[in-house]
Design a protein that fits this description.
Number of strands: 13
CATH architecture of the largest domain: Orthogonal Bundle
Structural class: alpha/beta
Strand content: 5-15%
Mean pLDDT: 86
CATH topology of the largest domain: Lysozyme
Helix content: 40-55%
Radius of gyration: 28 Å
CATH class of the largest domain: Mainly Alpha
Oligomer: single chain
Largest sheet: 6 strands, mixed
Low-confidence stretches: 1-42, 495-501
Length: 501
């Protein structure tokens, strides 16, 4: 076979160009973050990747400052700041919880997370691994120790003489610290400075969990950030956190070392946000007026009780009976009544699960029925709705969305929306981006008068938001009420009662 000169030139050009073409492709698909913000103009930055995804993925920690549930709602300084940032960026916020610092740093490096948002102290060693945002606040490391027995009856001199105030007195003491934290490095440095003798024990417990153990008397000493320590003295007055072992240090969020675009926009936001009245109120809420938003004896405070609400046991029992996740049912009850068994709506729906009188009568309950009976009836109604969809929608998570929507607006309207979706060649068995959009159109005469519609006009926006809000809250409940997070936590109320014995 003879190859012409032109063909030879084309083949040669292909071989010369091929490495460049492949190289360009591989550069786009290599490590998700490697030099991601140092790419050429025609390549995307990390921030652009996040915007395209539409979700900011963040890991935080479960404690009394960062993230917790109170009266059914997610709260925490870190969480509220993150929500403000996500709103500013016009992104959805995806929060996960892990108190394992080593895993969090690893996930950030591997691109599984966009940001670590917790009480991270800025250090030179950490700067070699991650990029820190502008500081959120300042704190210092303090020694956590118990006051002596009958400390309430002591004068100041007696109290001070019984506590460690001179760092030299830590020689010979055993101090427990969170593995991978800055506390371990600081204590080893301090031990060296005083000539040795401090026994530092690293454990895989979050700093506030170790504070709990000091309060219980299980260990004598730990170290935490001063802001965390001060909040915990609200719960445990027998604790002392007045002995500093470090100078003031910055606390910031961390992004990937090469996520320059993301860090810059966050820095700009922090700089402006910290000057607002809203930030001042938020800071005061969590760090200054520490009694204002917590009641550690409340069953609605997860850190205090280990519960979402005082009805958890009943919710778990009824959810198990119908094959539902109890945390999803709890989110429904919060949405409907804020866990108030005496709630009554303008339309006449009543009780924890806001059943309409006709539906309630079918399940044998009245406004005088007990909370347990209300939850049982609501669960049975959910099961009845689930049975209406189970043959068509096999995926349980997808089916739950249709059940929730039907619970809010009625099965007939949801079936109408499914028929509209099918008529206009959309999927009648997919909620988001399909049936939910056709439900929204049921407020338009063009569609609610369509021949396939049997139940007429519907104000779908309320149901759309109902499903969205319940599922969002459900994710928070799953974050906090899971075995991994709760395995090493003990409810504050339990610790409080033990410590007072």
């Amino acid at each position: 076979m003879t190859i012409s000169v032109n063909h030879k030139a084309a083949i040669l050009l292909l071989f010369v160009s091929l490495p460049l073409i492949l190289g360009s492709c591989f550069r786009r698909d290599e490590s998700r973050f490697r030099d991601v913000d140092q790419l050429k103009p025609d390549q995307v930055t990390h921030l652009e990747m996040i915007r395209e995804r539409g979700v900011l993925r963040v890991v935080t920690e479960y404690n009394s400052i960062s993230y917790f549930i109170y009266r059914g709602q997610p709260m925490g300084f870190q969480y509220e700041m993150l929500q403000e940032l996500a709103n500013y960026l016009d992104l959805a916020l995806e929060v996960s919880v892990s108190n394992d610092l080593e895993r969090n740093f690893s996930d950030l490096k591997e691109g599984n997370m966009d940001m670590i948002a917790m009480n991270l102290t800025v250090t030179l060693e950490r700067k070699s691994e991650v990029s820190f945002t502008a500081p959120l606040l300042q704190t210092r490391q303090v020694l956590v120790q118990r006051k002596p027995l009958q400390w309430e009856k002591m004068n100041r001199v007696q109290m001070e003489s019984s506590l460690i105030r001179n760092q030299l007195d830590l020689a010979g003491k055993v101090v427990y610290v969170q593995a991978g934290s800055v506390y371990e490095a600081r204590l080893r440095s301090l031990s060296n400075e005083i000539g040795g003798g401090i026994e530092v024990r690293e454990v895989h417990l979050e700093a506030e969990q170790l504070v709990q153990r000091v309060a219980l008397g299980e260990i004598d000493y730990t170290v935490c950030d001063e802001n965390v320590g001060l909040v915990n003295t609200t719960y445990f007055p027998q604790l002392d956190v007045s002995t500093a072992i470090s100078f003031p240090q910055h606390v910031a969020w961390a992004v990937h070392q090469h996520s320059d675009s993301l860090r810059r926009v966050i820095d700009q936001w922090i700089s402006g946000h910290q000057k607002t009245r809203h930030y001042a109120i938020l800071y005061n809420k969590y760090f200054q007026n520490r009694h204002a938003y917590r009641n550690i004896h409340s069953e609605d405070y997860t850190l205090g009780s280990g519960k979402i609400s005082r009805f958890d046991d009943v919710i778990k029992k009824e959810a198990e009976r119908i094959g539902w996740d109890w945390r999803l049912m709890a989110s429904v009850i919060y949405q409907e009544s804020r866990f108030n068994p005496e709630a009554v709506s303008w339309a006449g729906a009543f009780g924890l699960m806001q059943l309409m009188p006709g539906t309630a009568e079918n399940y044998g309950i009245t406004m005088e029925s007990s909370p347990e009976a209300q939850i049982r009836a609501g669960a049975s109604f959910i099961k009845w709705l689930d049975d209406r969809f189970i043959d068509d929608i096999e995926d349980e998570e997808e089916r739950n969305k249709f059940v929730l929507a039907s619970y809010n607006i009625g099965l007939g309207h949801i079936q109408d929306a499914r028929r509209l979706a099918e008529r206009y060649e959309a999927d009648p068995n997919v909620w988001h981006g399909s049936v939910d959009e056709w439900l929204l159109k049921k407020s338009d005469p063009t569609y609610y008068t369509d021949q396939v519609v049997k139940y007429g006009y519907a104000r779908g926006i309320e149901t759309y938001n109902f499903v969205k809000e319940i599922l969002n809250r459900y994710e928070h409940y799953k974050n906090i009420m899971n075995n991994e997070v709760f395995a090493s936590w003990r409810p504050i109320e339990e610790i409080h009662s033990i410590s007072l014995q």
